[in-house]
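dumping this here before i forget
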Amino acid sequence: MIHLDSPESGAVLTRNPLIVSGWALDLDGPLVAVIVGIDRELWVGARIGIRRPDVAAAYPDVVGADTAGWRAELDLTDWPRDQVEISVIALRQDRTWSIEIPATVRLRPR
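structure:
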């Protein structure tokens, strides 16, 4: 499961920096990594292990739910398009990927 908290789909954002955050869970155990992409071209690793008491309360039996939060920062200062698609990919411990394309946002013109 991958959830994008921010930004919301349809939002209009400044170009720099773009903070993308949310939470991700695997019912079989903690995730190894979360990667955030823009238009499937620019990819950055997210910081994982951020405390999420709300996720832990919603999924009390899932190991790692209390630290399911992730956050990434992307520099879109010179991004060539005004509308971008945000993708989030989570790597599970069994080395398989969970993919989510949760939002399309607009960037303010330069």
